[in-house]
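Lecture notes, continued. The same structure-token format from the folding unit now serves as the input rather than the output. Read the line below as a description of shape only.
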């Protein structure tokens, strides 16, 4: 590092970090590492498992109604959004109390292999959203909005 350019080391570190992230997210490297193996990727609120012919994803949404879940599947990621709204009212001899709460859930789940979003299926039971997507055979990009059963 020279005194003429005190930020030279910062620029070098940034370039190195960019290179590391580019290598980490390089799909061909992930595919090479996971070829022929069952892979489980644990995330906060979701699990991703890569099987021979499909990808299985579980998203944990306790207390959310199925109608409040929006699911978007692309060939390389899943976009999950959900809302939970609670309202309560108490009227009793001159006392009136009303409470409202709102919680939102939003997560983009990157998939370690390319999938076929047109054949994605989703099911929601007991607070767990289960999504199955077959692996992709071609390189064409696709997106599908999936109805949750």
């Amino acid at each position: 590092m020279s005194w003429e350019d005190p930020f030279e080391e910062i620029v070098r570190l940034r370039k190195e970090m960019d290179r590391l992230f580019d290598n980490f997210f390089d799909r061909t490297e992930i595919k090479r590492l996971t070829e022929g193996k069952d892979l489980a990727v644990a995330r906060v609120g979701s699990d991703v498992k890569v099987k021979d012919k499909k990808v299985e994803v579980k998203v944990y949404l306790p207390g959310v109604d199925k109608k409040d879940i929006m699911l978007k599947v692309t060939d390389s990621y899943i976009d999950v959004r959900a809302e939970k709204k609670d309202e309560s009212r108490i009227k009793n001899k001159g006392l009136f109390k009303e409470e409202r709460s709102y919680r939102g859930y939003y997560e983009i789940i990157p998939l370690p292999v390319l999938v076929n979003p047109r054949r994605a299926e989703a099911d929601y039971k007991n607070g767990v959203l289960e999504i199955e997507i077959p692996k992709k055979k071609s390189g064409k990009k696709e997106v599908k909005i999936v109805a949750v059963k």
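Point for the exam: The first strand starts at residue 39 and ends at 43.
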